[in-house]
Amino acid sequence: MKLLSNSAIVTGGSQGIGLAIASRLMREGTSVLVFGRTESKVVEAAERLNREGEGRARAVPFAGDVCRQADVERAHAFATAQLGLPGILVNNAGSVSLHLLVDLPEEELDRLLGVNLKGPFLFMQTFARALIAEKRPGAIVNVSSLCQSVVTEGFGHYSASKAALAQLSRAAALELGRHSIRVNVVAPGAIHTPLAASFIDEPAMRRELLARTPLGRPHGLPDDVARVVAFLCAEESSWVTGESLDVDGGSHLRGMHSYWDTLNPPR
Fold this sequence. Notes:
Strand 2, helix 2 and strand 3 (59-63) form a beta-alpha-beta unit. The protein has helices at 16-27, 39-53, 69-83, 106-134, 156-176, 197-200, 203-211, 222-232, 259-263, and strands spanning 7-11, 31-36, 59-63, 88-91, 138-143, 181-188, 244-247. The relative contact order is 0.15. The chain is globular, with a radius of gyration of 18 Å. The longest helix is centred in the middle third of the chain and has 29 residues, at 106-134. It has one domain (7-263): Rossmann fold, CATH 3.40.50. Helix 4 (106-134) runs parallel beside helix 5. A 7-stranded parallel beta sheet has the order 3-2-1-4-5-6-7, with helices on both faces. By secondary structure, it is of the alpha/beta class.
């Protein structure tokens, strides 16, 4: 598979799905700026990626806040100086929490919307402006969630943020297509990551996920998402933009059961 660019930015790249995406891009020969909040984690991730990459590409770390425009612009400038002008952007950084509407703190809503919506917006804006100025093509992949199209109790604020990201991505695809910049979305279902493990491995939830997934696994793995992201960043998908691909083993076909009821059964 031939990727569109030799330089990429992956946000939330220090663990889980983001780390798998960075690894997959590097396997295809694309160097990656690993963006995350915690310096020690992004440094550790970059060192691991460079060890495992065996010289096929480079990983460089950058610690910052996706919600701060100054951090986003500094990250893009650093990636350009270290790796060349990025032609691939993967907005993977995200946040999730479980709150019923009547119990949701205002500050939690602001935080979640910032990470899940404002962050991708700032990165897309900075990334696209640089490519347009240089008349270079690009590929953006925004990592959303199955919750962008289905809802369950306790996830209303999260679902709203991911639905907004999906619509923002469609609008970006429409606006940026004339500049040969493609924008697509991947919408994972349950993926076994360090952050999601306690939720997914809870016995009642594991049974529920297994019952609702046609492909016969209770969850996906980070590389299941990474392979789809790599395809959307490759020349093989050069005629694909404004799309959203569910990466969930088919669980969307049965809708979403109430996670809240599964985790909080009646007494």
